[in-house]
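seq as requested:
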Amino acid sequence: MIFDTFADSLSFFLWSTFVIAVFLGVVVNKTNFCTMGAVSDMVNIGDYGRFRAWILAIAVAILGVSLFEYMQLVNVTETFPGYRGSQLIFVENILGGILFGIGMTFASGCGNKTLIRIGGGNIKSIFVFIIIALIAYYMTNPFPDSDKTLYSVLFYDWVNPLAISLDSHQDIGAIISHLISSENTQTLRFIIGLVFASGMLFYVFKAADFRSSKDNIVGGLIIGLVILSAWYTSSNINILAEDEQYSLSDYYSEWDMLAEDDEGKPAAARTLNPQSFTFINPIGQTYGYIKGRFDSALLTFGLISVLGVILGSFLWSLIAKSFRIEWFVDFKDFVNHAIGATLMGFGGVLALGCTIGQGITGMSTLAVGSILTFISIIFGSALTMKIQYYKLVYEDEATFSKAFVSSLVDMKLLPASMRRLDDI
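struct tokens:
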């Protein structure tokens, strides 16, 4: 996709993102694709249907990215955010993932689900959205009249020194290639992607009940393809200038030489890099856009995707006649959602993504940080649900410590002899 001007290329970039995001909102709402629901089904009723749909989406995305990258049709190395960066922020991935998993459990859904619920009339999710937006924005942007961010104040001094600097990119293919001193990194990435995707597809379709679940299959398949389509589109937009082709980010870096003035120049170059869907940082960008008085220079892939998913969900809720205004049940429900939104805001930025951003988009790159985040999100959510269930069943008898220890026993992380409450 080659354009004559930067303005035309940026317009196509944003409009194509919007169309894909609207489609994503429709599909997620229609198929009830929900990552928190997937964990809840596993923990509470032993149903792995929606979890397999999540794994199917990951497998499709990995398979597509592996093939397209081998054919040089996508760039998933120089991305925003930098999933494959050479610095492995494993503490942030794990801590952020756990916080996000806990948060989405308290807030009744992840970042993507929050947008879906807003489109369906859920006022509680607007409240969650606002809290996430404020925290996510100030995690990466300084407070007014200050050079400090939430990240620099709360995390930088003790988290940053723990990061591991690698001699290669952090995706599994690049790491193995470096270890065996191979020059065929792209081939290794392709082979490893096929192996991972094949294993996931086998796990998904070996279950007969999943093979008969149309919504789960359609949801997982289409969402995986949606992630891939965004990677492809954002990797293949070029501008022809002075008889050379420039990507959006390359053109931006040469702006003073290629453009006549600053009209139409975006606020940042990194948001022009190849990318696919993630929702916590973009929710923060939404606040920045409003704070910036709707300056068009602040329009990004992420911001447009947030608006598109909400619209897509809204359209489907009208078609399906499922639009319902919902409010908090009581004050406890309000507090739970506030806590959940706060933890998702912190966790989603720390971990560089959410259940979609790291759990599918990041996983499609097979970055180690994405894998750690994916596991940590599931752990944080599952542990929270188990603790909540113990406290519900045993009421006053189930102190937090007893419920916590018993939950860890259930998850095979502590020996059975340490159980404090009878298994439920």
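The CA atoms of residues 137 and 284 lie 4 Å apart.
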